[in-house]
Amino acid sequence: MTRTLIFGFLAFGLLVTGGCKTIPGLGTELVSAKQESTPLGSNKSIAQEGPSTPIYAQTSLRPSVRPELNTDEAGLWMIVDKMEDKLKTSGNLIRDPKINAYVRKLVCKLAGPFCKDIRTYVVRVPAFNANMMPNGVMQVWTGLILRAQNEAQLSAVLGHEIGHYLRQHGLQRTRSRIDSTNFMIFFQLAVAYVGVPNVGNLAELIAAGSLAAYSRDHERESDKFGHQFLVENGYDPREASKVWRQLIREQEAAKNPGSRSLFLASHPEPEERAETLMRMAKEAIGDGPAGRKKRKEYLEVFGPHRKSFLRDDLRIGRYPQSLELLKILEEEGHNVAEIKFFEGEIYRLRKNKKDMDKALTTYQEALKAGAPPPEIYRSLGQVYLKLEKKAEARASFLQYLKFLPDAPDRMMIQHIIGPTS
After folding, report:
1. For 260, how many CA atoms within 13 A lie in the half-sphere containing its CB?
2. What is the CATH number assigned to the segment(s) 306-417?
3. Residue 291 contacts residue 234 (beta carbons within 8 Å)
4. pLDDT tens digits along 282-327
5. Residues of the chain with confidence (pLDDT) below 70
6. Integer Cα distance of 386 and 415 in angstroms
7. 130-132 and 137-141: which strand pairing?
8. Cβ count within 10 A of residue 40
9. pTM of the predicted structure, to 2 decimals
10. Where are the domains of the chain?
């Protein structure tokens, strides 16, 4: 196997992990990039198509048609088909029939004639994301479901991902990266031949910068698709902007957000996206009705699972962002008792002695607000132990066992509190 072919294999490994976020779990099954590229037909940009162009006419894809076997696109599909096989047996798939039916129905409504070509998987990952593979596999992460406040907001993100699929951004990105990385090799060899030292980093910077700009264009284009899907399906298009405003709040809450290079960033800045989406929404609404949000239907499906999704979010340990998320959920009218319980959990988990009093106060607020999860009594017991208040700890643990007599940690709790009368 030639070095060029080996590089082609490696390049594909880097490329198929792209999307709105990187897709974990890529195996070693790669395909040679040394194939003839298939033209994308009349896939002009959405700006060239114009707002009057029917949304499903803005693609060269045809429903239920796979690419020709002798094309690079077919090779890419073979790779992601294998990834889908692994995804089907993943341990963190959400298998709840009600959740899957709801998401599937929503995707089908947005995808229209391409409904059968898109396979949707809800994955238990506590981060805001959905991603779309070139072969029609869509992942929807529970971190997104937790943060979306209604069906319109979720539809904005799903419509954005369907836009990536219809415009074949995955295929375009793959070809672009191959062209760019091949240029990088040529550039390094050329300057090495003439004796210019330490050029590797420069070549990589040039390649990475061009790819990031390309990806940002894709993101902007897909944002327009998401907006158009909202308008055409009667949703309030302003909800797309609200998604990004909420994410901005979480990002700003981080104590160490880290430096972010605008040159190398693979997405437009959140502020830009929020402003652009709101401008498009106001233009679309005009003097007419704003459209539906469908919050009630959304909460009926996902509300019972919010506690589980919040637990996952806390396990990441990004406590400043989680606190801001809880504030957003409280402002949006979610269960105050549940929210205050998880706020108290953050103070307890930070393991700072100064936070223990905060935890107690917040747990008490949760109890006054209604019926928090019964685990609150176990947490109270743990905090009281930290504060060396053994009697209060024992009483809290007993209350926990009263509410959950079959708790999986019953034996451990009984060992802590000792014999009972």
Report:
1. 12
2. 1.25.40.10
3. yes
4. 999 988 888 999 999 999 999 999 999 999 999 999 999 999 999 9
5. 1-53, 177-214, 257-268, 420-421
6. 17
7. antiparallel
8. 16
9. 0.79
10. 3-33+49-285, 306-417
